Records
---
Amino acid sequence: MTSPKKVLVTGATGHVGSSAYLALADKPKKYEVYGLDCTRDFSGRVTAANKKVMDIPDDRFHLCDLADFAAIREAVEGMDVVVHMGADPGDDGSWESLLNNNIIGTYNAFEACKEAGVARIVAASSIMASQGHREQEPYKSIVDKRFDEVPENYPVITPDTPAEPRGLYGATKVWAESRARVYSNRSDMSCICIRIGQVERDRPRPPNGHDFFVSQRDIAQIMECAVNADEELRFGIFYGISNNDWRWMDIEDAREKLGYVPQDRAEDNHVY
């Protein structure tokens, strides 16, 4: 019988991290899941449903700061996969916080995983790495809901399209993707980045979000798909969004290489 895969989820008490943790912890025969965060308290955006069932045992929880390399290094020891969700998620976060959490913290996670011989790191990127495309046509017409002005066969944005961050937060995520590429080339570690869309409590916030909405179960699914992707996949950037009618980001690559099959659409909850 195959032993459960050891997986550490950083940012485990956060909005997305808690969903990733629960999706894996729900399958104890497949995964031995650990959590890491700078606090035991839940983020204000964590759903009531997640809070109700979230219970990380003390012997599987690491309370530490992402900027503390020694603590991160200890936490990743013996792991097969690290799902790195920890970050300052604020688009208006201070430079000091973004530097410590999103730059230094991300460097620490990758470097610690390399030293510990972790086989794969699945890192949270963000749709904010592509935010600038929403200001350009034909995507701006989609955002503004001028659907009759959108060409029938408009080109979708793929992970190979140059990034278009519009703030420090988005820029830190582009930097994280670059670090992932470096480590995939200069180590034996597989590095997969997920550009996470707008994760809501299973409904997009009106009036916007219909293009890059992703449900709780879809984001949990793509994270698990990335954990189990073919070991030959050394590097990849994928969009983690639901199957929205007006998405302008490509998810076919995620379907093909990760086996991602989104279950939800923004339109399931709102009429646009």
---
Amino acid sequence: MSDTTDTTDDTRTDGGTTPTDGNGEPATDGGETGIVAPDDEVPTWQERKARKTGLSQLTYEYFERARREDQELREESDYVERDVLGFPTWPHEIIRNLSISLFFVGIMILIAAALPPSLELPANPSSTPSIILPDWYLYWSFGLLKLNPLNPGLAVLDGAKLISDQLYGVLANVVVVGAVAFLPFLNKGSARRPVEQPFWAAIGAGGAFFSITIAAIAVQNLIPLPLALQLNIAFIGPVVLGVMTYALLKTLREGYMYGLNRRYYMLRPPK
């Protein structure tokens, strides 16, 4: 409790007592918000940078202190928490979700009726199209199969390639799919925003850029750019974008975490 708050005990129907303040209102756990500095007393960016203790350590100490105080208050208090109010599944949630689903289904039916897709000529089994492409969501995999310019030739084999271009493309797919499948086991954090984990956000930004640029190689016949330039963009661009993303989020992280702590203690200040 705050030093400026006088508490008295009111007898409850179950025989216990409920702490109240001087006005007869139930006393809160946090008391007054004296720990939160006014807006004109918030330390500047240079002052926060001059601190010897890192911001991540301060954040950890703040939340550990609040968690410990919450646990102590719960152990000392005989107050029974009320159930959280919410909307029942039927009819509120089901009716709402059904209305939204029917709305979008109606929009799709309207578009399909008003703008029917143009049908091409029937496929001719005796002729091969000049450009063969898979479905659009597999362009990245098809682009990896076209990395034959990167398959090196060995001088000891008189410039011959150690593996074929087809096998080289398959191995590239295995490496990319394996990396994507293995990443969740490396990052088990609970961050909800990129600014909370700049490194993994940079990895994600670079991976997304790589998937787009490698998919463009699959349709290189439709893009007026040299293949060598496309390969440079596909493999150098993700690294550059990842470094820029990491630097930007790392710069924003300190201000974000400081604001998060300040908002947290304004809502529930410690004793």
---
Amino acid sequence: MNANPEMMAAGTAPARNGIVMDCQLEKVFYGDFLAVRDSKVPIEKNKITGFIGPSGCGKSTVLRSLNRMNDLIPIFRFQGKVSYHGQDIYDKKVDPVVVRRYIGMVFQQPNPFAMSIYDNVAFGLRLNGFKGNLDERVEKALQGAACWNEVKDKLKNSGLSLSGGQQQRLCIARAIATEPDVLLMDEPCSALDPIATRRVEELMIELKDKYTIALVTHNMQQAMRVADTTAFFGVDISQGSRTGYLVEMGPTKKIFEEPEQELTRQYVRGEFS
């Protein structure tokens, strides 16, 4: 697969004013259903940007729009612009597969492949035609995901043999093995117990030294613990359906302690969910 020159240039470009992705989501549709409207979400370099909001507010739809994962849904339509280092990822010349090389994703449920731990991590590298030392890159990714010491003696074992928390860290290792620039995480701890959740949260904080992270979470305490910036999405029901939109975005401490919008204040105080 040939990488788009535009995306390759974008992937090596310095962040403009600290912004890696400038995301302007005017309208996002599934068929005739307007899922998200009027949301401008800048993603800052080497920071964790948290997306919070009630169910149905479109925060996962927004996240999946950032690496064109929603393109896999036939009825998805996008109006707006998502600039990655100045390159619009929705430009017709840009291959969405290449986009996902630079903007990786970790899903809600741990989803290791039915293959060995080693092959799980090596999968994306092989897919992208990696020509370097595979053993070194696999070890580096597993170390980066804080699970090397737990699995180094059983790399030939199935990834499905690991615990839920280990499986999620394996999926993080698989995502970072190709050395993306941005890591999207869609409620990565929702299926994990409190101990495994804490370990993944610690890992996220460690990873932001090397990666830019966007995180969807239903757990406001988690957003307070790990996010540098928080975007709160609300739901507009005025047209008879549920359409998500950005209410407010800012430093996490300000969003939770001194929000500008009354709706944000009500949500962070637990007055609705």
---
Amino acid sequence: MLETLDLPIPSASLDGFILARERVATHLDQIFALLVEIDHSLLSLGALGGVSSLLSPSLLKMYGRETLLNDLIKSQDTLKKRLDAELWDVLFKASGVRSFMDAEARARFQKSRDKLDIVPLTKESLKSTFRALYADREEMFANGVENLFRGLSWDHRTNSPVAFGRKLILRVRSYMATTGLDPSAANTLDDLVRALCVLSGKPEPDHRHGMFQVLGPVMSASARGEWSGEFFRVHWYKNGMGHFEFLDPELVLKLNKVLASRYPAALAHVR
């Protein structure tokens, strides 16, 4: 059995998860071993193209049996990496770790996932990875809040240079666009909503219901307007700026307490 990792996933479920992954990996090995066996059998029967003559006859003429068979064998490792990438993604979502990661940290994980630069999923790698992530989760969350704060523009007096205020101003539309929500602004707002969910003890919204999907269509319908959500109200204008007002001042105080942990001298009054 896996040791308790303080995860919202039962240890027995993690054991089953690892065993299921090992079964799939074993089946992949068996499939490729059978393909090699079929290749040898076809050669013994005089089919000089081997298994490649069955799988990709058109490519066989271009590249030859040896090249295609080698590529097929190499794809075995690629398939296992894709398997691990998918399963790590499932575990990151189910464990709640993603809630503490800002857009930058998520982008790094997604880049590693897309490049298949992923550690094979084993009992040991799972324990070490999640122990490290959960030990650092408060630091990751504070990084996200700080990055969010640093992303505010100080060209607007509404945005305080030392703390989150009850109101803030963000550019929500690029200079060239007349409608819609800028993807970069959507990422910033998703980070904000994620932080507010964590601080209020509420579950993180499904990524399919992010601000780009929720607010984007509303802003596409009008060059200026108003929208209210669970945590804030926003007015957007033709110049592309969005004026946000937090609905719960207690959550603003909690955001500033996170900042105060990084800058105690500057924010001593909210510690």
